[in-house]
Each structure stands twice: as structure tokens, then as C-alpha cells.
């Protein structure tokens, strides 16, 4: 029924709407003085029955209710990245999400479940090994440089010559490390 102003005061049942979304938030009785309209954010049109997982949203232009999916406050997971997405708005779920959370690192979605992505883990371990190797090579080079200077200037002590040889041997062995076997690397011992 459409609301009509009246010359008489009256009390009618109204259905309250949340400002911004126009979703149904409750009902109550409202006193309507003569020659006035409904209170803001309300209607006198009753909402439909609302099933679980939905809310009734009032369309003021059509003067009608629509049922809209409501997943707010829930977390879903992006099937491409595994990232958690917190749902904070009304409406259907975004495309390409699942309710199932990935079990740890290096997971990929196979269409029905998360499975271990051994290739992604291998690539990660290789990059990690390459970074470790580069850092260790830098450390070795930093130790070798002043020792080599002392040797070049013929002012190196016996201990410095011994250390220089040990660091150079370490750097050669380190350079031979094959990072493609990331899980099985035996790193040479520091001098």
C-alpha cells in the first residue's frame, strides 16, 4: 500500500531501513502527525520473508523489496592467490573465490580443493638459495679484499696468507653450489 498523507494524526506500522543500503533493520509503530509523511529511512510496505544468507533491500524508486545476498563478516579465499578476502558489502560473492582456506604455503586451487604446488615451492626455494649464495659470496669477497691487498703489497702476515687461501677456497666452493637443487644443498663451511 502506498502511504498517503492525512488530515488526522495516526499511528501506523513502519519498516525501518538502514541509511545508505536501504536494508530492512526492523519494524515498529510510528506516530504520524497531520499533513506529514513517513519518517526518514522507513516505508509502510512490509518486507518479504527473508531466508538465511539474505537481506531485504527496499528500492524507493520502484517502491518494492528485493532480496540480496548477505555474506558480510565472512572470509573467502581468492582461488588465484589464496589471499583471504573479508566480505564487507552486500551482494553476491566475488568471482573466483572459495570458502575453503589454503592449508599453508605453496597451495594452488585445482577447481575443487587446495593442493600443494610443488613447482611454486621449488621456484621459491631456488630463489631463496640464489639469494643466500649471493649474500655469502659478498661476505667472502669482503673478507678476501683486504687480505688480498696485504698479499699484493707483500705485507701480509702468515695468518693473513692462510686466511686469504681459506676464503678463496671457500668462495670457489661456494661458486660451485648448484642452486637448482635448493632442497639438497650442502653449503661449504665458513673459514
Fold and architecture overview:
This protein is of the alpha+beta class. The chain folds into 3 domains: 60 residues, no CATH class; 41 residues, no CATH class; 67 residues. Helices cover 28% and strands 24% of the residues. It is built from 2 helices and 10 strands. The protein has a 3-stranded antiparallel β-sheet, with no helix packed on it. The protein has a 3-stranded antiparallel β-sheet with strand order 7-6-8, with no helix packed on it. Strands 4-5 form a two-stranded antiparallel sheet. Helix 1 runs antiparallel to helix 2. The model has no long low-confidence stretch (mean pLDDT 94).
Task: Summarize the entry for a quick read.
The chain folds into 3 domains: 10-69, no CATH class; 75-115, no CATH class; 118-184.
What does the average pLDDT come to?
A: 94
Question: Percent range for helical residues?
Answer: 25-40%
Q: Which class best fits the helix and strand makeup?
A: alpha+beta
Task: Report low-confidence residues grouped into runs of 5 or more.
Answer: none
* Strand order in space, largest sheet: 2-1-3
SSE pattern, N- to C-terminal: EEEEEEEEEEHH
The portion of residues forming beta strands comes to: 15-25%
**Using DSSP, what is the number of strands?**
10
- The number of domains is 3
Largest sheet: 3 strands, antiparallel
Number of helices: 2
Radius of gyration: 35 Å
Rough outline = rod-shaped
How far is the first residue's CA from the last residue's CA? Answer: 89 Å
Amino acid at each position: 500500500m502506498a502511504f498517503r498523507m492525512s488530515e488526522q494524526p495516526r499511528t501506523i506500522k513502519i519498516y525501518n531501513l538502514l541509511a545508505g543500503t536501504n536494508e530492512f533493520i526492523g519494524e515498529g509503530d510510528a506516530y504520524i502527525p497531520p499533513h506529514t509523511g513517513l519518517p526518514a529511512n522507513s516505508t509502510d510496505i512490509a518486507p518479504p520473508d527473508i531466508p538465511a544468507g539474505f537481506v531485504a533491500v527496499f528500492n524507493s524508486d520502484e517502491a518494492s523489496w528485493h532480496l540480496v545476498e548477505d555474506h558480510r563478516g565472512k572470509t573467502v579465499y581468492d582461488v588465484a592467490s589464496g589471499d583471504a578476502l573479508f566480505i564487507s558489502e552486500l551482494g553476491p560473492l566475488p568471482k573466483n573465490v572459495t570458502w575453503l582456506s589454503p592449508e599453508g604455503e605453496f597451495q594452488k586451487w585445482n577447481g575443487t580443493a587446495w593442493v600443494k604446488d610443488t613447482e611454486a615451492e621449488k621456484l621459491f626455494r631456488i630463489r631463496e638459495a640464489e639469494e643466500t649464495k649471493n649474500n655469502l659470496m659478498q661476505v667472502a669477497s669482503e673478507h678476501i679484499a683486504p687480505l688480498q691487498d696485504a698479499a699484493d703489497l707483500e705485507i701480509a702476515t702468515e695468518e693473513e696468507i692462510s686466511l686469504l687461501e681459506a676464503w678463496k677456497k671457500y668462495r670457489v666452493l661456494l661458486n660451485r653450489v648448484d642452486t637448482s637443487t635448493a632442497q639438497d644443498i650442502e653449503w661449504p663451511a665458513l673459514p
